[in-house]
Design goal:
Length: 88
């Protein structure tokens, strides 16, 4: 089993290895740009969790063309950083 797969199936590239939650929706929904400029593409759920957690992160400008970009931003705004560390 690869490091991006779990018993629940394939996980997106944005999902933190310590985050046990499953992906939601398309595995390649949006691209998150980290504070150091690295780009990783992931599902809506994990992209929001990383956006809330990684200082200086943002969605790639092309994400504005995707219908779920607002959902990612709204979810991120409602989360504490690193929600998987406190059981969320």
């Amino acid at each position: 089993m690869s490091d991006r797969e779990t018993g629940a199936g394939r996980r997106c590239q944005v999902a933190d290895p310590n985050d046990p939650t499953p992906c939601e929706g398309e595995v390649a929904a949006v691209t998150v740009v980290t504070g150091d400029g690295r780009e990783v593409t992931g599902c809506v759920h994990h992209s929001a969790r990383q956006l809330a957690s990684l200082q200086g992160s943002r969605l790639h400008p092309m994400a504005a063309l995707m219908p779920w970009a607002v959902d990612v931003y709204c979810r991120a705004a409602a989360l504490t950083p690193f929600p998987w560390e406190i059981g969320l």
